[in-house]
Amino acid sequence: HGEIIILRLDNHPSQVSHKAIEWFADAQLLLQRSPPNVHEPIGKVEVSWSVDVPAVLAMLFAASLSHAHVYTAFLAREHADNHVVRPTSNGIAHSPFSLYHNMEKPTDDLRQFLVYGSPVKYLLQPETRDSKWEMHAAAGIYVGPSRKSEASNARWVWNGTRHVTVDAGCMRIYEHALVLRSMPDHPIHQPF
User: Where is 32: in which H helix or E strand?
Assistant: First the structure.
């Protein structure tokens, strides 16, 4: 006793099996299928997923990090995507972040964008050290904006065992090696 829900699907084998079709019919769901290997009619989520996942895997590959870091790579990718400036329907360029926060114009501070997977040295605050003779800095890998702090300058660093929230001003990042991998003449792109 209600409206028929329309489900948009691609033609994945799991969704065209006889059992799946019977289940959808019993649940009174109307199916709209895309042509094989075409994902545009499915919706923004599917199109985004087909772009975001390869981008995340490329970030992990460039940083030589394992799939255990997919979560942080995906969050870093979404953070960057939310700050990309795009034209809106009224012709004014905005980012999703600036629209959500009702900002008059999007941020133009590019210092918030750091290269995912870059090696860093971060300051160990005096309060966390047992004595002044302990190391004042530790090595780590930059893995995106922090999810433990709402501060805009809070960053996550992987120290090999856990994620540490670090102020962006309290770390030195070396992005050069990862940026060089994007050059077409880098050995990683050569077949032999």
Answer: strand 29-33
Q: Are 144 and 156 in contact (CB under 8 A)?
A: yes
DSSP secondary structure string, 35-91?
A: PTT--GGG-HHHHHHHHHHHHHHHHHHHHT--GGGHHHHHHHHHHHHHT--EE-TTS
Task: Give the residue ranges of DSSP H helices in 64-162.
Answer: 70-82, 96-100
Q: Which of 74, 48, 110 is nearest to 65 (CA)?
A: 74
Q: Which two tokens stand for residue 158?
A: 């992987």
Long-range CB pairs of 180-184 (<8 Å, 24+ gap) are 181/62
Cα R_g (the chain), whole angstroms: 22
Q: Which residues does 177 contact at the CB level (< 8 Å), separation at least 6?
A: 118, 119
Q: What is the pLDDT of residues 22-66, one digit of tens each?
A: 888 888 777 777 776 665 555 666 667 777 888 888 888 888 888
